[in-house]
Amino acid sequence: MRTSFFLLLSLVLATNVTAPELPLADRNDYTPPSPETLCAVEDFDAFIEEAIQNGYAPGAAVAIVENGKVLLEKGYGLRSVRDGQPVDAHTIFRLASLSKSFAAFMTGRLVEKKILDWEDPVVQYLPDFCLQSDEQTEQLQIAHLLSHTTGLPYHTYTNMIELGRTTEEIIPLLANVEIIGKPGKVYSYQNSIFSVIGEVAKKATGLEYEANLKKEVFGPLRMTDASASLEGFLHHGNAAMPHKVVRSGVWRQVSPSPHYYNAAPAGGVNASAADMGEYLLAMLGNRPDVLSAETLKKLGTPYVYTPVRWRYFNNWKGLKKAYYGLGWRVLDMGNGETILYHGGFVNGYRAEIAVHPKEGWGICVMFNGAASMADQCIPKFLELKKKKKEIL
């Protein structure tokens, strides 16, 4: 039976699942979750439940927050079609390209500690780093890595990642790549050169990338299930296995792949719904002890215009323009409304994330199959919120 709105409201107000040491809940201007969001959460819960029952994916997990409160952290379906174990709030999924926002969050922490600066040249930390042009090499900054504005062609050496090459091995090959634009001027989505941020952070801190994530992100946010390696995935004990579709509604489990753990800043984070609830709260400013409002604004400020690829956004009603910030897509929905968003796909997983800084809500949805319905999830939630607001 679906939970009624009033029961859901009472559960939210009574729950002890709140943002850790949450300044928002203690502030005079704190506002409770909106009625339309509470209703939308109930309907979205049913939407995912029905989709999993109908075979659109083997399993899923969802986290939704608003105004400093976790409204939903839940698992659906199965971790594996082989063993039939259910997904719960602590089941980990691969986040794929949602990992890029974690790289930016970690960098923001290091900037606040004055270990790095957004405008630092990459060669300041990696003296042997070299692009085809000496001028381009000297001008390339940390912010260019995180905004896909390095001036290299679309998906440069992503094929090398698929072949198992590490970022350290790929870096020397970048000197052979023809440059298509000056740093900061041309948007061109990347995985390999984006992951150079991990090597920069390693040089600056002396820590491997996963260790930096644990120190600067996972630990402070108490993301107790999160990791950024195949070993972390395999040793967790509660992982959603990857699946491929055999035919409509029928899925086959496949072996976990090492691909993109070798480019962890671009696609190597593993996390649960419980983890993502904490992350969403932090991205919405509820953890200023971890990341300041100024840095959060920096991450979500449009850095470069990106042409809208409608095969990814054809379900988004009202989308006007799209940009890329630092680790996030920045979507202009018109009337001053901006949503930070990222989607991800890797080796049998799909994931979607969105935060609305002005309205204070965030949502993350993860699937352990390449579910085409992933494209519908964030637009569906927006639609439900809009409809409920009109009714209420």
Fold topology:
Elements: H1 5-14, H2 23-26, H3 35-53, E1 59-66, E2 69-77, E3 93-94, H4 99-112, H5 134-139, H6 142-146, H7 158-162, H8 167-170, H9 196-205, H10 209-218, H11 230-234, E4 243-247, E5 250-253, H12 264-267, E6 270-271, H13 273-283, H14 293-299, E7 304-306, H15 310-313, E8 321-324, E9 329-332, E10 338-346, E11 349-356, E12 361-367, H16 374-391
Antiparallel strand pairs: 1-2, 1-12, 3-6, 4-5, 7-8, 8-9, 9-10, 10-11, 11-12
Helix pairs in contact: 3-16, 4-10
Q: In words, what does this structure look like?
A:
- Helix content is about 35%, strand content about 15%.
- It is α+β, with helices and mostly antiparallel strands and about 400 residues long.
- It has two domains: about 30-95 and about 220-390, Beta-lactamase; about 110-205, Methane Monooxygenase Hydroxylase, Chain G, domain 1.
- The strands form three sheets. It has an eight-stranded antiparallel beta sheet, sandwiched between helices.
- β10 and β11 form a beta hairpin.
- α3 packs antiparallel against α16 (about 375-390) and α4 (about 100-110) packs across α10.
- The model is unreliable at about 1-25 (pLDDT under 50).
